[in-house]
Amino acid sequence: MIKIHVAASQQYDVILNKGILSMTGMYVKDALGLQDDPITGKLKNKKICIVTDETVDPLYGRENQTLWRSLTLTGFEVHKYVFPGGEDSKNMETIEELLEFLAAKRFTRTDVLLALGGGIVGDVTGFAAATYLRGIEFIQVPTTLLAIVDSSVGGKTGVNLKAGKNLAGAFWQPSLVLFDSEFLDTLSYDIKLDGIAEAIKAGIIAEPLILDSIKMKRTLDDPDFLMNLASLAIEVKRKVVEEDERDNGSRQLLNLGHTLAHAIEKCSRYKISHGHAVAMGMKIVAIASDRLGWTVENCSEDILEILERFKFPLRCPYSAWELANAAMQDKKIRGGNITLVVPARIGKCRLKTISVNKLEPFISYGL
Questions:
Q1: Boundaries of each 3-dehydroquinate synthase N-terminal domain copy (predicted)?
Q2: What kind of fold does domain 189-366 have according to CATH?
């Protein structure tokens, strides 16, 4: 078992273990500090809503399956809300429908949501939890490597607007994060790559040991390796979140490659997945930073080598103009400036603020 404690505004544990899904009820009960009814020996009048999508629901969300049984045996009154998967559902319409569902089921401030799925499910559930009755507790049960490595930890929640990605949201920390290594068995190679991209990002930012570990692997079939990789990446995020929870300073370093990744996702109408777009974004930023002399040590060759090792598709199909135009709605734009994350050397990145007028030339250097 791997257990990482996050000391943010709400303190919580991130627990990774094989078979942990069968113990979800117990872990949720303990995390929320709930007590059994002295007569029945079970929880009393405590609702939990599993929020999931149409892809994950048949795998783990049904009444006759492990998660539901664990919650029911613990004494929770279990409800479920399912929405279509994909970025097209990560919007205010889904949030409104979920909030109306909770109201119809008479959820109160003492009840809880449980996000069962990838990053989109986690973002939607967290945002709903932050806004329903001005805030109720929620649990993250990520089912993808990408979600456990990155989005399930740190308290960023939100949805997309037509203008761009994650433009509506809230900071709302979970009460617990649980990840079962058996989830890895259902993930395709490409979906695992999404998580690897975020792990590589964490290594470039602050932990070269991650990159050393990845360099020794040529396949992604070893669950112990992936669990260890996830724990190292979570530790990087934990330290940054504890230092700058509200994303006003050092937490921005976690956005390495993300300004361009979000632009790539938007240009592709979200046909290019987040992790694959992050890999493209990191490649562009690394090459441009080297060519402009912004790095202390040239990084692009090392970064390209590790991305190519796992056969990431790295050729960006969009022009510098298209990417710069798509990035104009990025959250990191303040006034006429945008803050980029650039590598100084492997294991050390820094923030570089430039005029938005210089973004297109910067991208051109990296393409």
A1: 81-189
A2: Dehydroquinate synthase-like, alpha domain (1.20.1090)
Binding-site residues for Zn(2+), in ranges, read 198, 258, 274
Give the residue ranges of DSSP H helices in 105-222: 119-131, 145-146, 189-206, 208-215
Contacts made by residues 360-365, CB under 8 angstroms, sequence distance 24+: 360/320, 360/321, 360/323, 360/324, 361/320, 362/288, 362/292, 363/260, 363/284, 363/288, 363/320, 363/323, 363/324, 364/320, 365/287, 365/288, 365/291, 365/292
The token pair at 255 is 């956005």
Q: Annotated binding residues, as ranges?
A: 143-144, 156, 165, 183-186, 198, 258, 274
pTM of the model: 0.94
- Encode pLDDT of 17-54 as tens digits: 999 999 999 999 999 999 888 877 778 889 999 999 99
CA 121 to CA 125: how far, in whole Å? 6
Q: Where are the domains of the chain?
A: 2-186, 189-366
In order of 23, 50, 110, 219, the CA distances from 178 in angstroms are 10, 14, 21, 25
Q: Which residues pair with 350 in a beta bridge?
A: 342
Fold match flag (2-186 vs 189-366): no
Q: For residue 65, what are the contacts with CB-CB under 8 A and spacing of at least 6? A: none
Residues annotated within a binding site for NAD(+): 143-144, 156, 165, 183-186
Supply φ then ψ for residue 216, to 5 degrees. Answer: -85, -5
* Of residues 110, 156, 114, 152, the one with CA closest to residue 133: 110
2-186, which class in CATH?
A: alpha beta
The string of pLDDT tens digits covering residues 142-162 is 999 999 999 999 999 999 998
Nearest CA among 291, 302, 288, 276 for reference residue 341: 288
